[in-house]
Amino acid sequence: MNMTERPSGVFPAVCPLDCPDACGLLLHKENGKIVKVTGNPAHPETKGAICNKVRNMAERVHHPQRLLYPMRRSGPKGSGEFVRISWPEAISEIADRFQALSAEHGPQSILPYSFYGNMGVLNAEGMDRRFFGRLGASKLEYTICNSAGNAGWRYTMGFGGGSSPQDTLNAKLFIVWGGNIVSTSMHQAVLMEQARKNGATVVVIDVHKNLTGRRADWFVPLHPGTDTALALGLMHVLFERGLTDVDFLREHTVGHAELREHVRAYTPERVSRITGVPAEDIVRLALMYGETSPSHIHIGNGLQHHDNGGMAVRTVSCLPALTGQWSRGGGAFKSNGAYASLNDDALQRPDLRPDPGVRKINMNALADALLTLEPKVRGLFVFGSNPAVVAPESGRVREGLRREDLFTVVHELFLTDTAKYADIVLPATSSFENTDLYTSYWHHYVQLQQPVIEPAGESKSNFDTFKLLAEAMGFEEEAFRESEEAVIAAALDNPDNPYLNGVTLERLEQERFVELDMAPKADYLKRLTTPSGKIELYSRQLQDLGLPALPTYLPLEEGFDGENRPERQGRYPLMFISPPNHNFLNSTFANVGKHQAMEKEPLLQIHPVDAERRGIEDGEVVEAYNDRGVYRLKAVVTDLMLPGTVVSQGLWWAGPDSPGAAGHSKRLANALTSSRIADMGGGATFFSTTVEIRRAEAAADSTSPTGATKEG
Ligand SMILES: Nc1nc2c(c(=O)[nH]1)N[C@H]1C(S)=C(S)[C@@H](COP(=O)(O)OP(=O)(O)OC[C@H]3O[C@@H](n4cnc5c(=O)[nH]c(N)nc54)[C@H](O)[C@@H]3O)O[C@H]1N2
Ligand SMILES: Nc1nc2c(c(=O)[nH]1)N[C@H]1C(S)=C(S)[C@@H](COP(=O)(O)OP(=O)(O)OC[C@H]3O[C@@H](n4cnc5c(=O)[nH]c(N)nc54)[C@H](O)[C@@H]3O)O[C@H]1N2
Ligand code: SF4
Ligand SMILES: [Mo]
Questions:
Q1: Alpha helices in 317-420 (DSSP H)
Q2: SS3 162
Q3: Which phi and psi (to 5°) does residue 169 adopt?
Q4: What is the set of domains in the chain, with CATH numbers?
Q5: Whose atoms come closest to the Cα of 686: which ligand?
């Protein structure tokens, strides 16, 4: 008897959320419903501990507002007015519209837009890729999360994997750089605490003292977007004081002589002016790094959501090489995704695509893709993502979604802000209703999810939905008839990835958590895939792209540093940082009562100096604004960051649209952010955003539609 048929019991599951930890879960089921979610103590890395978000997951899965049947729009776009239709009606309408668009405008007029609302590979990057590939739709570039930083890491290190979780336990110096692991990767935070018990010093480098910074032995605040300068300042001191590992540099790197010359210009005094970190602290941190072994740097996502984010991660990832950490049991982590890389050709079947040269659309540029791109995007299929909330420039994204000549389908569990703009809404199963395969971009265990509960209402998985659509479109390939198990087996069979040796569907069915074969990691340094096969302190690849070959600090396009501040200040003199909060997962859970109650409301952390200058008091309602939009929230006056930076954590839904007022729903952090593309990997630049803040009272008598103050 499979798990769905047993009304009660405790069943294994995998956390599907876009979180590095990929926890093993236990679902406690009574009368067909999940009543409790706990951690699975048998999981070798997550060991039964899970976060508060997912402990309250049952409320989300059985939420009264789950979408239960397909719907067609009956009111204006964005109004949320829909009528119920059947699946056959929905599927044939979508197929008809897609066929008509393909015939009239070519299939590239259709754009799939998705991300990792569910990390299961079949549902997030399996049958959808096959379907839209076979259709010949425009290709989406999946750049919203970590692509600048991952590219930066790869230019330096080649291979997209770093230190293993258990290695970090041995660190005597543990640096969290631009990450908030207490909220975003709790098991790494547990290992950090264990390392501290074993004698490690914990240093957190961030633009605000987040929950992780509050646990640090030493918190180092800096101006946003200046991490490259800080890392170069550390290198300056390391070379000058003879703290580099010369043998390691000779054997395993290229460009160390050039780098040594290059960093002479980054004196502690100059770097201090740029970053806001006192010169003596730069020296102290460099000495600590140069004299402590093993050391570990956890590179978060924060420093790379910037115009210069690729370079920032590239530069920080050079540091372990300077002190030879990779051969001393230390190192760094950006993402460990590559250890578990699957056979993407078998999973996604790019061979089905009629025109491999079809245009690519960077998902960060969704606003432009919908408003200005030619030839036009006329069909949009959104799933596993909530772009009306999470994508930059949400005012313009919404304007695009309101286009009458855009046919939009949204496949979702809830009537999200994005789904409200759909012409057709399709109900999605939760991951606990599906079969899927899960890897982790942090630990080394692969997991299998099998259905534990029946699909809610008429909901269907992405996998099944794209099969139905393929059938309706007349796609006859076997690829659209394969079972979940067949696709999983094919994806796991990746001869190019030795770490995946011995990981099979059969073992997953029996063992649940199957560890990657980590034996090849013993000669990690021989497996680097840079052009030289070495750690590239000097990168010809970057030079060919027109970027500096050596790590080089370039100021933000939108923003300022301590050195360039005065002339760049302009009308918007504050940097606005909007990282994740503790109780939501991106915009997931922002509609669930328990999670909302824990976060209360959107808050803006503002420094006392900046608050006083504007006459703002703690607890009062303020507006953050720039030319893109307005965000209304409550001020918290605090010195958790340097003056000049304001911080608002969490992505809230705006709720009902107010037609005609693009970006003025006033509850969206991304109403303020830019869709400029980062220096590497096509990455997002969420945190390279400048704003001004005013009291909401002052806003009420302001006349400017862009929200500028009367005098501004
Ligand atoms: N609770 C929770 N967990 C999550 C998520 C969530 O929404 N909520 N999201 C998940 C996802 S998709 C991701 S990508 C990860 C992200 O998780 P992390 O890797 O931890 O990254 P962020 O939380 O985006 O940003 C971390 C920090 O970067 C800081 N920061 C911003 N700009 C700069 C800068 O220029 N320099 C430095 N040094 N720091 C800067 C921010 O202040 C923030 O404290 O978390 C995952 N886990
Ligand atoms: N200002 C600002 N913006 C940011 C960030 C930031 O730090 N600051 N972080 C960025 C980052 S790192 C990321 S990764 C993105 C994340 O952005 P998104 O990937 O859009 O993440 P979520 O907001 O969690 O939305 C995921 C949606 O997928 C739906 N979903 C879940 N499972 C399934 C399924 O099986 N099928 C279907 N069809 N739907 C499903 C959920 O209900 C949810 O609405 O946001 C980015 N946006
Ligand atoms: S969100 Fe992260 S920490 Fe929480 S249960 Fe899921 S994988 Fe674990
Ligand atoms: Mo992300």
A1: 319-322, 344-348, 366-371, 387-390, 394-401
A2: coil
A3: -60, -30
A4: 3-61 (3.30.200.210), 71-145+356-515 (3.40.50.740), 162-334 (3.40.228.10), 566-698 (2.40.40.20)
A5: 2
Is the whole-model pTM more than 0.90?
Answer: yes
Q: Which residues pair with 626 in a beta bridge?
A: 629
Residues 391, 401: Cα–Cα separation, whole Å = 12
Q: pLDDT tens digits, residue range 279-305?
A: 999 999 999 999 999 999 999 999 999
Q: How far is the CA of 18 from the centre of ligand 4 (A)?
A: 7
Tokens of 242: 């003879």
Contacts of 33 (CB under 8 A, 6+ apart): 58, 62, 453
3-state secondary structure of 367: helix
Q: What are phi and psi of 72, to 5 degrees?
A: -115, 145
Among the listed residues 452, 609, 355, the one whose alpha carbon sits nearest the alpha carbon of residue 28: 452
> pLDDT digits over 487-543, tens only?
999 999 999 999 999 999 999 999 999 999 999 999 999 989 999 999 999 999 999
Q: Indicate the residue type of 654.
A: A
Which residue type does 659 have? P
One-letter amino acid at 493 equals D
Check: CB of residue 121 under 8 Å from CB of residue 431. Answer: no
Mutate to test the pocket of ligand 2, among 14, 63, 114, 115 (most ligand atoms within 8 A of CB): 115
| Average pLDDT of span 259-280 | 98
Determine how many CB atoms are found less than 10 A away from the CB of residue 178. Answer: 27
